[in-house]
Structures are given as structure tokens and as C-alpha cells.
Amino acid sequence: MLSKRIIPCLDIKDGITVKGTNFLGLKEAGDPVELAYEYAQTGADELVFLDITATVEQRKTLVELVRRISKVINIPFTVGGGIKSVNDVAVLLNSGADKVSINSSAVSNPELITQIANEFGSQCVVVAIDTKTIANIATVHTHGGRNPTKKETFIWAKEIQERGGGEILLTSMDHDGCKQGFALEITSLLSKNLNIPVIASGGAGNEVHFKDVFEIASADAALAASIFHFKEIQIPILKKYLSENNIAVRTL
Question: Quick check: is 46 in a domain?
Fold first, then answer.
């Protein structure tokens, strides 16, 4: 059985780690380099870095910060924000990223998924989906959750797989920052009907929420931010709890 992965997320704005609720009300959560180092030392399986305003501000990801973080960690490192081309991906990989995450650019130019997969391999391509329920339909949003699209989340996820995406980072905007648990229904729909890994994001508040998203929704990985940044949950304790509940996790 493959181990379930625990992934802290660094949401970056103006070079600082931030966190909000439902994608709003951002507050500072610490120095990203220091946080990254701590997570790598305390059992995080991977690290995700999202430059959350790069697309909105129409600029590229903070490459120098990516480079600094990559030097202090020894775990897989996914970077996203403002990526629009194969060349953008090459720059980030050369700066220390192991994988890239694309979102808005994939929606506007789905062929980009295939281009990156062909150039660097599917394992390099994480496609992020920000989903929010509108009129009882899970709907894809872009530009940091600001812009609703006409795409249904599950249909888009299937297209991502068909185009060569290697993994999906599924964030429920309805659950983000609320600490009431992950979006089990939509996560389960994707996890149980796709052949590529699904990372669940949005809503973690305690250890049970992680157990549920692995047991009930069959997620391959679970991502969280503020509960790790503010030490509401510590990764070694979380992994001990999951292991005691018969969920396979990698331990130090």
C-alpha cells in the first residue's frame, strides 16, 4: 500500500507566507524559508509553494524565493503561480522545484498541460483546481478563486488526466480555512474515478479530518496550511495518530 502523504502549503504574497479563510482575509503566517526548513525536518512528505497573487498581478513566480527554499529542504517541492509556458516551468525546475502546479493557465490553455508533460514528464505536472459549489454544481474557479468558470470540476479533472496531468491538487473554496473538515464528497468523486493521485486541500482542522479524507474519500495526499503554520497540529503527532488508525504514512 502506498503511504498517504502529508503536505504543508506555503501560500506566498509579497514574499511572506499568508493564510486566509475561503481565500479571503489574508494574514501573515511566517517566513517561508524558515517554515520550509522546519517542515522538512519534522516529517512533511512534500512541500507546496503557491505564489497566490502572481496570476492576478500578471507576473511570474518569485524565483529567487524558490531557489532559497530549495536549498534548505530535502523533500519533493512543488511550485505554482503565474506559470504560462514551458519556459516558465524550465526556470522553476532549474531553480530547485521538483514539480510545478498550474491552475488558471491550464484552464485558459489546456494544451499547456500536454506541453509540460511532453517536455518534462507527467510526474512534473500538478494541476490545481479551485472548486466552489454554485447552484449545487462543483464549479472550477481561476485567478486565486476570484473568477468562476463554466467548467464542472469532475469533467475538468477527467480532461486534466487525459491531457497528461500527473496529479490534481483539489482545493475546496467552500471549506478553505474553515477547519471543519475536507470536502469529502467531491474529493471522493475524483479520487475513486481517476487514475492519477488527488491531493485534498481546504478545511483541515484536526487529526480526524485527515483520517476521514484518507479513509472515506480515498485521497492520496492531504494538504494544509494554517494549522501547520500556527502549530495547531504538529506533523509527527498527526502521523502517529494516522498510523495508530491503520493509515500508512512515512515516518522519520
Answer: yes
Grid cell, residue 135, equals 447552484
Domain that holds residue 50: 5-244
Question: In residues, how long is the chain?
Answer: 252
**CA-based nearest residue to 15, from 48, 43, 54:** 54
Reported pTM: 0.92
Q: Residue 176 catalytic?
A: no
Can you give the CATH number for the domain in which 121 is found?
3.20.20.70
Averages of pLDDT over runs of 10 residues in the chain (252 residues) are 92 73 55 93 96 63 88 96 93 96 96 98 97 96 90 98 98 91 98 98 97 98 92 96 97 80
The H or E element spanning position 212 is helix 207-215
CB distance 50 to 80 below 8 Å: yes
45, 51, 130, 220: which one is catalytic?
A: 130
Within a domain: 249: no
How many structural domains compose the chain? 1
The yes-or-no answer on residue 51 being catalytic is no
Q: Calculate the CA 98 to chain-centre distance.
A: 14
Closest of 75, 242, 66 to residue 234, by C-alpha = 242
Q: Is 252 part of a structural domain of the chain?
A: no
C-alpha cell, 115: 506541453
Whether residue 71 is contained in a domain is answered as: yes
